[in-house]
Amino acid sequence: MIEIYCGDGKGKTTAAVGLAVRAAGHGIPVFFLQFMKDGGSGELVVLRNLPGVRVRYAQRFFGFFRSMSDEQKAEMKKQYQEMFDQAVSDVHQEISGRDGAGLLKQKAGSRSKAEISCVLVLDEVLHACNKGLLEESDLLTFLDSCPQEVEVVLTGREPSDELKRRADYISEIRKERHPYDRGVMAREGIEI
Fold first, then answer.
1. Shortest CA distance to 33 belongs to which of 97, 98, 79?
2. First vs last Cα of the chain: how many Å apart?
């Protein structure tokens, strides 16, 4: 199934992290990729320490998209494509029964077709696609060929109509009020 958490409100990543923790608690392997962020947000510390969760983010981050040079944008695009390609490979290895990703299998026995084999969270992938830092066509190709037992979670703003058509769940998180509107910057432990 494909889930989209979108909108201009706070909580898209938080919802995806909650789903990742729930899945890991049931022994389901989780691949958590974070786009458009520097890898320093608090949730990654916890996720990295959970058995069966693999976290990836860009090793070189250049700040806000609007501040990046063309060379930096090209570097981000290259990093994001490599992250995405590796995650697709990891997912295929996981569902084929090879534990090539090094993830821990906590449940004994085999899973039925109705059960989830793994969860792939692509945090802020919608923003990365919207800014041309990841080709949406690559994401769509993956989604179209993704086995049913893989749960895919996409977060960010403004999903395309093509992505919406493929989604099984769409949850929009709408901002009614946010401290940033009053000039309050992101707070450690709450927004980052």
1. 79
2. 28
d(CA 132, CA 97): 33
Distance, C-alpha 99 to centroid of its chain: 21
Alpha helices in 37-134 (DSSP H): 42-48, 70-95, 125-130
Alpha-carbon Rg for the chain in angstroms = 16
Q: Is 72 within 8 Å of 108 (Cβ atoms)?
A: no
DSSP 182: G
DSSP E strands, the chain: 2-6, 30-34, 53-57, 118-123, 150-156, 169-172
Q: Walk along the chain (192 residues) and give the pLDDT tens digit of each residue.
A: 999 999 999 999 999 999 999 999 999 999 999 999 998 888 999 999 999 999 999 988 888 898 999 999 999 999 999 999 999 999 999 988 744 444 444 343 444 445 889 999 999 999 999 999 999 999 999 999 999 999 999 999 999 999 999 999 999 999 888 888 888 888 877 877
Q: Which residues contact 161 (CB under 8 A, 6 or more apart)?
A: none
Write down the pTM of the prediction: 0.86
Nearest-angstrom CA–CA distance, 13 and 171:
12
